[in-house]
Each structure stands twice: as C-alpha cells, then as structure tokens.
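dumping these here so i dont lose them again. two proteins, back to back, each one seq then structure tokens. dont judge the mess
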Amino acid sequence: MNRPLLGTHCSIAGGVDKAIDMGESLGCEAIQIFSKNQRQWRVPFPADSEIETFKEKLSRSKIKQVITHASYLINIASPRPDLLERSRAALAYELQRVAAFGLKYLVLHPGSAVGISREEGVRIAAESLDAVLGGTAAADILLETTAGQGSNLGSSVEELYDIYSRSSFRERMGICIDTAHIFEAGYNIAEKRGIDDFLNKVDKYFGLDKVKAIHFNNSKTPLGSHKDRHEHIEKGLMPLDTFRNFLAVPAFSNLPFVLETPKEDNMDEQNLAVLRRLRGDENRE
C-alpha cells in the first residue's frame, strides 16, 4: 500500500553520503540534499568513490527517495548577461551531478526578475530552461512554488505555468509544492476549502501527476505576506489539519514530503513524530 514518504533536508557536511546517515538516524523514508556546497558556484565533480559510497549506502538504507535542491545562487531569470550565463552553466552542472549520483530530480526556484517586468522575467526563465535542458540529458527539474518575496517568480500557479508552458522540454519538468510558500503567496491552505481550491488549480494547469515532491513547512508569517519564513509544524500559523489534509491527498500517496524547517534542538525528530501521527502511523498494526 502506497503512503506519503516522510523525511527532511539532510546535511552533506563531510560528504554527500553523510546525508544518508542522517536520514537513517531520523527514520526518514525520503530526504532532500544539496548535491554540493550551495554557497559555491562550482566545486570539483564528485569522485567515483564518492558516488559509489553514496549509492551503496542508499541501497542498504530504508530511504526510498532522494531529491536534490539547486543552489540559491542560481537565477535563471536574471537580466544581467553575466549572471544569466553563470546561472545556466551552474544549473547544467548541477543536473549532471544529480544524475551521477543516480538521482532523478533537482528542485529549482524559478528565478527573480530583478529590475525588469515579471513578464520579461518569465520569458528569460523559460529560455534558460530550454537552453539548459536542451544541452543535457541528465536529471529533470522540479519548479518550486514560491512565496513571491520581492521580485521572485512563481508565487502563483498561473505564473509558474507560464514559465513551464513556454518551454519545449515540459516532459523534463515537474513541480514541487512548498506549503509555507503557497500560504505566504496568498492561498489559504489553512482551510480545507483553500487546499481543494489550490489543488484544483494545479490540476487544471499542470495535472496533479506533475507534482513530484512536497516541501512540508509551516509559516512564521501570515497568509499573503509574501515573506519566505519557514516554521516548525506545530509552531506556525497553519493548523495541523493543513498537514493532515495534504497527507491524505490520493494523488500524493507515494510522494516525498520533506521538511525544510529550522535546524535547532533536534526539531527534525519532533517534527517527523508529529507528521507520522498525522499520517496515522499510531493506528497501523
């Protein structure tokens, strides 16, 4: 029987394989990682030994899915030629790293339209996706929903779809829903009706089968704040029913639901315990 896969973002400090150790220690069924130091544009390509160690550990673990997240330095909608070229090269390089580790998906923020119109930013982002995906047959991209902070693109389903639909490589793309971001963007998922309305819109534009991962975060800031501030599951402004209802969506029954909540005081363990309870683990024999 399929059920949502619960986990968290795990550190790769000391080696990418160390994320598997962390995920195992927390009882994760899915994890998210950076494939490299996300604060650096480029690092040496992983050695064969590093790749093999990661693959071996993963094969022996109870972790069923690993997704990766692209560096926050990348801006595929930049109007600056130098930054745009650097971002596209970095994205292509990350896709190659992801594929080398035997993984499929790279989560990507859809870019920021700094100093230009959102329409122009959408156009540049779509062209970037085509330039990168057309040049590599490596991993696929998951466009992430955003809070819409500042000039960040992708805070509405329609805008995210506008980027996606302009690309010639839609078969190489899916989406990643971040619960904190969509609440901060103005979708009232604190209520069941708001979740239904949001998912109906996703289904209308993308199809729910295009959702490949969920970032499971509560929010420190109010509905429609357009401020990206993650909070622990029981401490944020959305009720526990929000997370219970997302876990019960049939179309998401085998997806990774990954925490990106603050790393402090062993809170990953506590947040995962709450999510397991909401999933109904206490009622399972």
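---- next one ----
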Amino acid sequence: MELEDDGFLCRRHPHRLDPAKYRLPGQPVLVTICSAGQRPVLVDECVREELIGALDVAADSAGCEVMAWCLMPEHVHVLIQVRTEGGDILRFLHGYKAWTGRVMREAGLGRVWERSFWDRHARSRDDIVAIVSYVMHNPVRRGFCKRPEEWPFADYRRFASTGAAASGEA
C-alpha cells in the first residue's frame, strides 16, 4: 500500500487492506457489492426501495456518509467516506448487507449477497470526480438509459469534506 502525495490510499494488490484503513476520516472509498451468482434481483420492485433507503441508515449508524451510489440489477456501487468524527466503512458494509439480506430473504429471494466486496480508495480529488462519473454512468454503459439522470436508482451528493460538487464544481 502506498500513500499518494495528497494523502489518499491506493490498494495495489488483491488482498483486503488493514481494517484501520476503512476508518480514516475523509478517505473516499468506492465499494461494490455484488449479488451472488450475478442474479439480477436488486432492482426488483419488492426490495429496491429498501435497498436504497438502507444506504443512508447503515451509513449514519456506522459514522459514514454516502457521496454517490448506483443500484444496478446485480450489484450496487457506493462511494462512501468516514465522517470527521469517526466511523467505519466495514461496519457500514456489515450493517447494510445484514439488513438488506434479511429483507431480500423475507421477500423470497434467498441469500442474495456475495460474501465479500470490491473496493477502491480514492487517490486524489480528481480521482473522486472520476469515480462519481464511473458510478453515475454505469447504467448508460450497460444500455439501460441514454443519460445518467434518466436512471432512477442512483444519486450523488456534494462532497462534504471538500465542498466540491460531484461534477467537479467548486
């Protein structure tokens, strides 16, 4: 693991970082959680509102804030950071997957989440903008819509720690 000039971490190997790295205030991390077997069940009417609503609840409970998210049929991207007061992204992931996993089992979808997740720690402020663009354009790349704003299962917010908008505006 290396620290870039601006202090952001970059994981350069396939192994999970030390848990302390998921508790660094202001460190944006893109996490991707996939459905088991890539089953396209996440935008199913019976669970999608619960999956979306649980993002902020789990983030708040873990001392984190969601910067951007996109719910796709078989995965969800979440750009998240720990608040300045402290928090834990791994606790967010555990809480989110446990709560929504129960909701999906009760909806008759069985075990939905893969056991692990993918993550990428932003290395710079420009990297944050690139990550937000990647997340928001995911449905466009997949052919679900022509423009990111047409996809109803995604959102971005202002960068709380930087004051910059997701589009890169100051």
